[in-house]
Amino acid sequence: MKDLAGKTVLVTGAGRGIGRAIALAFAAEKSRVVITGRTAAALDRVAAEINGSDAELMALTCDVTEKIQVEDLQRRIESRFGAVQILVNNVGIAPAAAFLEMQDSVWEEVMRVNLSTAYNCCKVFLRAMVDAQWGRIINIASTVARVAYPRIAAYATSKHAILGLTRSLAMETARSGVTVNAVCPGYVDTELTRDNARRLAEKRGQSLDEALALLAASCPQRRLIEPQEVAYVTLMLASERARGITGQAIQVDGGAVMA
What we know:
The protein is an alpha/beta fold.
């Protein structure tokens, strides 16, 4: 996808997992990659990997739940790379709790991290895309943007909301050269999934491998998705060839959700 070379890409939550894979994928395409997160050490590790690809890079700590920090992030990026052309909203948390036992603070934190971060970044970076008559926003959602499961009411609600934001912005920007899409992974082989599997294993008295196998069995392919597979779809949506795709939720889940 040679048209991605030289494009300025911002990936939030890029210190590990899916965000890391997406950042590395854009770097391989010679994009100008900005990675951000709250943990400098994690960003430094990803930066070390990207630096080996000769891609232009900025690694900037930022708490994207705070709009004022996102506005400062914009200024820092524009001072070196110009306006962000491709925004990948990847930040997210996925605590599990039965609804009646869930603390109000959990609900508030999930909405702040999973939804308000995307709002903040879209609000700050979309204007320049519209002005330039070209841009891409890709929101990393989840299959639970389409379906729901027990004990994840906050998470499922936040991801349904991300899909609503995606579709609304796609309608508003349809004639501006900007596309807005969501990628909806199933269970991905990341630290987050393994942490959830450990909690599941402890609850059921199983081994970690047994818990991971249970998660993998939720899709017809009987496997966990690799982070690179999510990254590939993100690259595709960012490319010029995908200019006719907007307002969509593309599932990368081994066939787990077919709707």
